[in-house]
Amino acid sequence: MxxxxxxxxxxxxxxxxxxxxxxxxxxxxxxxxxxxxxxSSASSSPSASASAATDAYVIPGTIANGPGIAPAAPSGNIxxxxxxxxxxNYTSYEAxxxxxxxxxxxxxxxxRISDGWPITNTINPHISADGKSMVFMGQDAASxxxxxxxxxxxxxxTRWGTPKxxxxxxxxxxEDPKFSPDGSHIVFKIDGAVTEMTPDGTVTxxxxxxxxxxxxxxxxxxxxxxxxxxxxxxxxxIVEMTADSKxxxxxxxxGTVDYYPIGMDDKNFLFTxxxxxxxxxxxxxGHYDGSTPTPYFFxxxxxxxxxxxxxxxxxxxxxxxxTDGDQTRGGYDIQVADLTAKKVYSIQEWNPLAxxxxxxxxxxxxxxxxxxxxxxxxxxxxxxxxxxxxSQGKPATASSTYPDHTPGMANDGVVDGTxxxxxxxxxxxxxxxxxxxxxVDHEISGLLLHFWPGxxxxxxxxxxxxxxxxxxxxxIDARSNGQLTDRAxxxxxxxxxxxYVRVVFNSLSAGRxxxxxxxxxxxxx
Length: 525
Description:
This protein is mainly β. Helices cover 0% and strands 38% of the residues.
């Protein structure tokens, strides 16, 4: 979610019936080093030792995958939308691993646009009306001070250019930047006060003081008046400050939290309201005349709905994020609401990788921005590595096993549904593993891994081999791969002789999913 008066809640899925095996999103802090629970434990303990993790995705001794498969254009069964949807995703607001993404709604192309920038934790983008400038908040990688700064990236004709730090390092927290309608100014929050500057970083006016705290500012259609969230807790409300410093309350629902206002047209705006009884977020339509705000048809008392942004003027479609477990892959996922038909669509209908086990939040839509020519994120290639499939049907074991989801289900040739191996429970750290016995030594050339659950996530794992099940050699280290995927193709530059192959999970996934494999395929001769 966006920066807000109260810390964001993580959506927590639950384990359903054993046969369904709906793996939960679990807090990493709750894990221990024992493999307890109702599952069984293998007699031997994991002994694969991995080398030091790196900052980038490095697989020693392998060659890069070939070109991926371009996503298919969105089907005719979903709204025909145009323009670009920008957002960020992260493990959580506190994790510091935010990354910026861009989705072309007409073609389904998806780009991770912040890769390679000297900035960590890039979140909350906003696009100028002409589509040529983007502001966002991030943290300077060189200083490492952990403070937020406001950055500006300019479109160079083919991609987003290296951003310029407009506000720091200044030992202050600079957050929530938004362009004025004509792009001549940027409003943002600096240490609890709403401030305005020009795109070169020159401060032009202070709109509010720090007491009470104010944030998440947004321009009204006239480009001069500002609305923002004022206060914390149940005192938080949506306030307007005019260019001549006249203050007016736009929305203040009794006993609730009102925050994150976003303009729609010349009469209405969107904001998020934390409901008094359920404490779940809902999206409201507010009105500049101060009349009573109204909720939307998709709001509920059992899940969060927040971070709304209008498509065009918001009269036909809205983008928003939700934690509704029936509509998401875990955490916050993006939805499109058809306000006329009163129907919602998951953003994964436009591109499957745009909805993951991480939190996708901080939405903004642009009618004028262009898609980067060289930044497209493709579906991973999963063609077989050289050689023949060696592992299917061979004896498989694991350090622990969830009931009815045995190790052999990870190499039985079935990749669909819940036919998978999974660890016994969350208390399996630090290194649960799945292992296959190929019978005799083979020249191993590569692997195909299909992770459980089959959703885009970041998996931290390593691959070890052995000829005697006593001495292990780590041939692949992907503990800090940073890649959002539900599968992996691993090809060795030089084949490795081994009888046993072990997949070692070094932590829960970034989305806090338990270690598990739909299928693990070992290739060689």
